[in-house]
Amino acid sequence: MAATSPLPTGEVLLVGVAHVLDLRKGLQRTVADFHPDAVAVELDPERADSLVARERAHREGLEVSRTRRGQPLMFRAWGHIQDRLAQSLGDIPGAEMLQAAQLARSMGLPVYLIDDPLSQVAPRLVGSLSRRERLRLLLSSFVGLLVPARIVRRELEKYSEDRSEYLEILREQYPSVTRVLIDERNAHMAQRLAVLSSRHRRVMAVVGDAHVGGLGESLAQRGCPVHAIRVEELMDTRPAPAPGPAPGSVPPPPPPVSGPP
Fold this sequence. Notes:
Blueprint: E1 11-17, H1 24-34, E2 38-41, H2 45-59, H3 73-88, H4 95-106, E3 111-113, H5 118-128, H6 131-144, H7 149-161, H8 163-173, H9 175-197, E4 202-208, H10 212-221, E5 226-229, H11 231-235, E6 244-245
Parallel strand pairs: 1-4, 1-5, 2-3, 2-4
Antiparallel strand pairs: 5-6
Helix pairs in contact: 1-4, 3-6, 5-9, 8-9, 9-10
């Protein structure tokens, strides 16, 4: 049997975001600097449809509501926390994903949804939680309802200063959560991005910042040239620095000189 030759790969830019912040300007700068020919977002079709409906209601000044019937209590509680924090910061949770998709479409670029369906993730998570993790999640959810937006920004700054420590604490306290919500989804999203990189020269993937490290390592293992821009760089209003290598990445080739595709 003849050996299968590896697929040709294009560059992948991982853009780390926070789901309760308005990062529109940072995303616009990143697209202008990277010149992608495809954009991928950490969404599945169900969440994408829900975000579109909620963004329309928010834009028209209508009451933004979310139906969470059938979802576990912890999912509903964390959803309400994200709603409150995002509204206090002037947007809706997940708006950065819609902004990336809308920006791509305005430029005629294809948009890909690369996340696992929530209807599959939620049962996997609930079924894997220990009794201790369930209790911790419920308690942290109720505490989160009282956290002001300024504390969220402060914690984002601390996270940016030492991501490894934050993720290590998360793994110690919530091993099932990190395995299902981060590790497993990273593996699935990396596989989808690897396929996209075989079809496109430059793929920009907008994902939660906690996914950037694991995705970068997984893509590098597949031989994909990968860069990363983290959430604090998007929050900065100064000109964006050149994308840096993602953790575990291989050195990227020089960018083409012919301009955007």
